[in-house]
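Trying the structure run again after the queue cleared.
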Amino acid sequence: MKNTIQNLDASQVAQKAYEYYVQRGCKQGNELDDWLRAEAELSVSKSKTTKMPAAVAKNVPVSAPKTKKNK
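Done. Tokens:
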């Protein structure tokens, strides 16, 4: 499944956006910026945790399948 913003949990985005609001000193007026920044950050972090084959995760070279030519 392709990782998209639609796959993010709205409560996680809201929590992250709130953290940005607090970091800015609770100044109002940047709610949309905080939300979009939270979506972007969570989307990137979620894509980094996507499962991949063990050989790829461990950076192990995978040999090509044997065919009649290279046996």
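The radius of gyration is 20 Å. Worth checking whether this holds up in the mutant runs.
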